Amino acid sequence: MIPRKTGLILALDVDWDVDKSAAFLRGINDLIDAVKIGWFQLLNIGPWGIRELVNKVGKYFLADLKLGDVSHINEYVIRRIHDLGINGIIMHSVAGKDNLTGPVRVAKELGVDVYLLVSMSSGGELYDANLEYNVELGVELGVSGFIVPATKPNVIRRVRPMVGGGYQLLSPGVGAQGGKPGCAIANGADFEIVGRAILTSPDPRRTTLDFIDLIRKPSC
Ligand code: O7M
After folding, report:
1. Residue 8 CB–ligand 1 contact under 6 Å
2. Ligand 1 center to residue 173 CA distance, Å?
3. 66 among known catalytic residues
4. From 147, 196, 198, mutation site for ligand 1 pocket: most ligand atoms within 8 A of C-beta
5. Which tens digit of pLDDT belongs to each residue from 163-218?
6. Whose CA is nearest to atom 19 of ligand 1?
7. How far, in Å, is the centroid of ligand 1 from the Cα of 87?
8. Which of 4, 54, 56, 166 is spaced 20 to 30 Å from 16 by Cα?
9. How far is Cα 59 from Cα 162, in angstroms, rounded to an integer?
10. Measuring CA to CA, how many Å separate 90 from each of 38, 55, 77, 101, 147?
């Protein structure tokens, strides 16, 4: 589980080298609960660059690979992600029970948290048509939590009572995609995921502090 202090997760979608990313993270390290990395960083600094970044920064790292392959491939990826020192991974729930059961078990053995994507901040209509099924599958498998979009507060409000308090809800789509800062958490999420609004800010620390203020005092 992601340790929660501020409720903010940074989506580090940048093509910077390790030193520039580490310097940026150091500037806001005390204000964020986790760093979400994905294809931008993986394809630009490679797996060993990610391992170096993880070691330098000392934060909860979440790999957003939206993993959804067949079981043995998913298991391989989770093992390699663990080798890089990453703490959690995001998987596609539509991969289905047969492709998720083994990988979630392997992740648990390794101490890697699995977060399941059950709705998307844009599109994702097949996801929304099967929300209950995918959330129940995640609960049955014993994942750590779910990705629920800030742009669809009604989805957050539906998922929270389905899972109760034992699962973490992570909400992307805040800021650049139109989700109002603070409102995903006000609607039942645990964390808001923010990328461009912080990454492109002329004063990222100030902007991050503003997001935290709005999480503490939302106006939705
Ligand atoms: O704040 P942004 O719009 O710059 O970035 C949003 C981040 O959230 C970006 O890293 C996306 O990959 C991610 N995201 C979505 O934008 N929409 C989704 O439906 C799901 C995710 C996500 O985090 O999935 C795990």
Report:
1. no
2. 6
3. yes
4. 147
5. 999 999 999 999 999 999 999 999 999 999 999 999 999 999 999 999 999 999 99
6. 120
7. 18
8. 4
9. 30
10. 10, 20, 11, 14, 8
What is residue 174's DSSP assignment?
B
3-state DSSP assignment of residue 183: helix
Residue 69 carries which side chain, given as an amino acid letter? D
pLDDT in tens, 41-80: 999 999 999 999 999 999 999 999 999 999 999 999 999 9
- The structure tokens listed for 18 are 């390790």
Catalytic residue among 66, 152, 180, 217: 66
132 vs 130: CA distance, rounded Å: 6
Measuring from atom 2 of ligand 1, which residue has the nearest CA? 195
What is the distance between the alpha carbons of residues 147 and 185, in angstroms, rounded to a whole number? 13
Q: Is the pTM of this model over 0.85?
A: yes
Backbone phi, psi, residue 205, to 5°: -65, -45
